[in-house]
Write a structure and sequence with these properties.
By secondary structure, this protein is α/β, with parallel strands linked by helices. The protein folds into 2 domains: 132 residues, HUPs (Rossmann fold, 3-Layer(aba) Sandwich); 141 residues, 3-Layer(aba) Sandwich (Rossmann fold). It contains 11 helices and 11 strands. Strands 1, 2, 3, 4, 5, 6, 7, 8, 9, 10 and 11 form an 11-stranded mixed β-sheet that branches.
């Protein structure tokens, strides 16, 4: 059976990844596995004295191990395997450790701030398996899932990513019993909308007709298919708020750029706004 890799961090004032991860693993039929990451930057005597730093490190690791053990006891989940390690580069370690042949998903709570930390972006850009990010800024959620699909692309890589998103979203909906919705945005620059140079209602109506066969193959009720015209990040953010979606499933085309690995401006803009839990489905773009 595939595993769900749960990232636990010390002193996290955020949605508890362990309890949420074990619940999701049970729903998806996966084996939960916890990696408890510990790290502390020392100053003063601990910084200059390796013996003091070593003792502090041992104590921190012991405290974190105890914390996880107590929580697992409260959850009646003492059989869930966990490892606690001292690690400064969490994202690098997690992405190297979690391979698709052994793990089906990775899960992490995002920081207590309203924005993703650099660590979160590194996980998004480099993960080899679907990555569930638990929001700390939740909506008054209902039992609904929104998947973002680009119906208008003919590129093989985009179509492969669409299929991966649809597959993951269907699995999540079937496991949780949540309603599944599809969101597709026809990109229409604001200046064209403001100048009334394009009739957005006609565009949307035509899109429903053009993609009717694909929509039918996906198997959703027509009331659960939402086609919009505008800026993708804002449209999907507003739709997720309107649906009060508990999960957003979105694809990330990982590719190598001048500044390292990137996932595209649209995906990053959507992720920066969203307040639902986010399931990021990766696809490495070989066309550099």
């Amino acid at each position: 059976m595939d595993k769900l890799f749960i990232i636990s961090q010390r002193n996290q004032q955020q949605t508890d990844a362990i309890s949420a991860g074990i619940l999701l693993a049970n729903q998806l039929g996966l084996l939960p596995e916890i990696m408890a990451y510990s790290y502390e930057s020392f100053s003063g005597d601990a910084y200059y004295n390796p013996r003091i730093a070593g003792a502090a490190r041992v104590q921190i690791l012991a405290d974190d191990k105890t914390r996880v053990q107590l929580l697992l006891g409260e959850l009646d989940a003492n059989d869930v395997p966990f490892t606690n390690i001292w690690c400064k580069t969490l994202s690098e370690h997690a992405c190297e450790h979690v391979h698709p042949d052994e793990y089906a998903m990775m899960l992490k709570s995002i920081h207590e701030s309203a924005h993703f930390l650099p660590m979160d972006w590194q996980l998004i850009r480099h993960t080899k398996v679907p990555l569930m990010l638990l929001s700390n800024n939740p909506l008054n959620r209902t039992k609904s899932i929104l998947m973002a699909v680009d119906l208008g692309s003919n590129k093989p890589s985009k179509q492969a990513l669409n299929q991966a998103v649809i597959t993951q979203a269907h699995k999540l909906a079937a496991s949780t019993g949540h309603d599944l919705h599809l969101g597709f945005v026809i990109r229409l620059p604001k200046i064209l909308r403001d100048m009334d140079l394009v009739n957005s209602r006609t565009l949307i109506k035509d899109a429903y007709q053009q993609h009717r066969q694909v929509i039918e193959e996906i198997g959703l009720d027509k009331n659960h298919v939402h086609i919009m015209a505008g800026d993708a990040d804002m449209c999907l953010f507003e739709l997720s708020c309107r649906l009060k979606a508990q999960y957003l499933v979105i694809g990330a085309r990982q590719r190598q750029g001048l500044l390292g690995h990137v996932i595209g401006n649209t995906a990053e803009s959507i992720l920066a706004r969203i307040r639902s839990n986010v399931l990021v489905v990766p696809h490495h773009d070989e066309n550099q």
